[in-house]
Each structure stands twice: as C-alpha cells, then as structure tokens.
Fold each of these.
Amino acid sequence: MNRSLSWQSAAFLLTVMTFVSVACKKTPAPPPPPPASNTTGITPPTPALPAPTVTLRADAATITRGGTVTLTWESRNSATVDIQPGIGSVTPLASGTRQVSPTSSVTYQVTATGPDGKTAQDTVRITVNDPPPAVAATPRGGEPVKPPAAINLTAQQLFDRDMQPINFDYDKSDIREDQKGKLQTATAYMKANPNVRITIEGNTDERGSEEYNLALGDRRANAVKQYLAAQGIAETRLSSVSYGEERPACSTQTEACFEQNRRAAFRINP
C-alpha cells in the first residue's frame, strides 16, 4: 500500500512539474518587419537647378559716329555671360559694364548660360548717326568755299548710291525708324527716274527653318513695297520676291553679320 501511494505521489509530482514548465515558457516575440524597399525601381528626380536670367541695357540708344556708349549687364544663376558682336565673354558674371564705340547701327545680344546648359538672352539696339556736315570755311573775301564738283556716276552707280538695302530687327518685318531715311532717298530716286522699275528682294539670316524664312523675307519685301507706294510710287513699278536665307550678304555667324543678312535689297528690272 505504501509503495502504491509513493508511485502515485511521484507521478503526480511529475505532472505538476511538467505543467509548471509549460506554463512558464514564454512565446518569443515576432521578428520586426523588413525595411520598406523601392518596388517601383524609379530613382527620385534630382531637384532642377534655377534657370539663368540676364538683362542688357545701354546708357544711350542713339549716338553720333565716333562716340561711345556704356553697356550694363546683370545676370543670375549663370556660369558664363557672352555679349556679341565683338565683345565675347565678360566678367564679373553678376553685373558689369563695358564701353563700346560702334561705327554703324548695331544690336548687341547678351547670352547667359547656366551650369546645366540652359540659356537666357537679352538685346539692346544702338543707332549710330552720321555727324553733321562741316560748315564750309569762308575766306577773307566773304565768298564761301565751293565744294568740289560731283563726280559723274553711271546709272547703276546712282542706283546703288540711292537705293541702299533696308535692314530689319531679328524676326521682324516692321520698318525701323533708323531706316526711313534710306527709304526717303529711294523715294526721291524713283520719282526722279520715272521709267525705272525695281524688284524688292526680301532676305533673312540663317536662323529658323527654310519655310519660315521664305515667309519672313516675303513680309519684309512687301513692307518696303507698301512704304514706297504710300510715298506715291506706282505699284506697277514695284515687284517683290523672297529669297529667305538663300542669298546672305555675310557668312560669319556673328550678330553683326546676321544684321546685314536681315534686309530688303533693290534690283533694277530689265
């Protein structure tokens, strides 16, 4: 009897110990979730650099040939600043001045280039006028000195002298104020030579498509034609044609050259 109780006690004790061991065993905490990954495969865009800005100003819009004018530029976010024609790269980039003495009317263009290659531009036009004619000297006798006799010119030389090409601003077909003097001289020639018939040739610089430049050259030729007609020249004496960029007067890629190509020229009809 005692042996039976001893075995039962041992079995009971073993059962209690097993229960306590299972009850005291803790469930391990779940592992932390893996870090989020970029499942799209797209790299976030790099913030864009600020675009460059630039301005160009002149302290005078009109000067007499031989005079000087001061150009002033201001730029932001630029790696280089370049002024054409004839000046090139300038420093300091943020702002500065440069004195120029153009011999003929010219449009200066400044180009600012940012670190990423983006550009900004501005232009300013300087009109150069001829100096006033010198007053003839008067000798002691009071008689003014007579100018030398005019050299006899051929008909073609007279035409070339009085029918000078009319220049235009970039991408424009409006008659500029500084070109109206040429047109007045052309009008006087046409009135003095009523049998002359002419063709007005519209031209452009090389920038722009061929189709666009042909249309722009046509607008320039017609603008000159309408101006002469408004001065009393019969339209039957005026023809027009556009050559676009096909017949440049100058072939270098500078603003001064581009300006020469932006023109309406005159040709005598046979």
Note: The radius of gyration is 42 Å.
Amino acid sequence: MLLTVQIVNYNSRENLARCLDSIQKNVPPGVETQIIIVNNESEKLSGETLCSSRAEIVEAGENLGFGRAHNLGTKSARGEYILFLNPDTEVLSGSLEKMLGIFAADEKIGIVGPALVSESGKAAEEHFGFRKTPFSLVKTKLFGPGREVFQPVQADWLSGAAMMVRKKLFRELGGFDENYFMYFEDVDLCLRAIKRGHQVIMNPEAKILHESGQSFSDNRQKKKYYYSSQDYYLRKHFGPWQAGAAKLLRLPYYLKNVYFE
C-alpha cells in the first residue's frame, strides 16, 4: 500500500524536521510513503531542512493558504490515501496503522482523523465534532466544546491538522474549496463528503501530537481569517439570512478578538 503524506510549510521549518522524522519512525509494516511538501514561503525550501527524508517539494512561491496549497500538492499524489498533516505535528507510534485500519471496515468511510493531543497527552479542545450550524457555532462560544471520546466515533468534521482521506473521494469532491484561505475548509470538505453518502470517523486510538498555531504569530490576523472563513461557510451551506444572524450574535466575540485582544 502507498500512503501519501502531504504537508504545507509556512514559517515552520524547525517544526517540519521533527514532523518528518516522526513520520519515518512510525510507518506501519507493508506501507510505503510518498511525502509531499508544499512550500508556501517565497524562499525555497532547502534539502537541509528536510534532513534525510525523500520528500518531494512543490514550490508555491507565495502563501496560497491551506486549501489551495494542498490542492496544488495533490496533483502529484500517488497514494490510495492522502494524509493531510500540519508541520507542527508529530506522528505517534501506531497512529498511521490505526487510521488506515478504519478504512478497511467499510468502503463508505471516506475520511479518518486521529485524536490531536498535547505533549502532556491531553486531547485538544476542538479537533472533531458534529455539524457546525449558525446555532452550534454560537453555542460553542457560550458553553464550550464537546466531551472527549474513547472509541471510534462518527463525526461531521475533523481538523485538517491531521486528516486522512481516500484520494479517489478527494478528487471526486474537487479538493478543498479554495475560497477559504485558512480555517473551515476541513469542515466544508467533510460536510460535502457526508452529503455524498460517505462517513467521517475520528479514531481516538490513533494519536498525533499537535502544538497548534506555530506557523502564524499574528493572532489578530488569524482571527480575521477565521471569521472571514466562518462567514463564507455559513453563507455557502445555510444561506445569507442564517449567516447574518450568526454574525450578529457573535459580534461581541468578533470585536473582542479582532480589535481588543
């Protein structure tokens, strides 16, 4: 079996070396890997950064954003499955095998994700969940994220920081929607897969270390991208009226995060 692992690099060269090392150390028996790195920096990526990995480098020449860069990289993907992985992640022992094993259970399973954990082993607050609607987005702000799970669960979305997709399905869906620069393109992809009759599974038995936000230091700009993508997602899937209502309800959080943080 050939697994394509694809990473988008942007200001993450130090993290990238550790990520590549963790992949090489944890490839399951009988699995070959094709590693593709899409470099979103204007400065070309040197071989020294990649250490001993045999990664294929796709030079974007500019910051294309998350989805557009991954779509560019997948043009060269040869694996039956594609693992989209952030450079600030580290693959832990057995995780790739446990993610691949989920696909064998049912051909309708199209996307699989792991539990994203910190160095302490604690699961990230929000790396999978149920359908994001105008109401659920506001509810999460008011009451916090959902509970932790301990066995594979069918979800409505997974974090793109570590997401494995059947390549055939990814191409049938047309890849990530490039109208998102960053944020919500993973939620959108999962929703479109479900609408086509496929399942999205989070397997907490597979664990990947993730220290989020390492490549983007401007927190205010990150929030602007987040809210812009949220607006587009809501308009696309729920129409202008519900999107407008959600935008009004979240206004205090928007002002606080974008202007007063």
Note: The chain has eight helices and eleven strands.
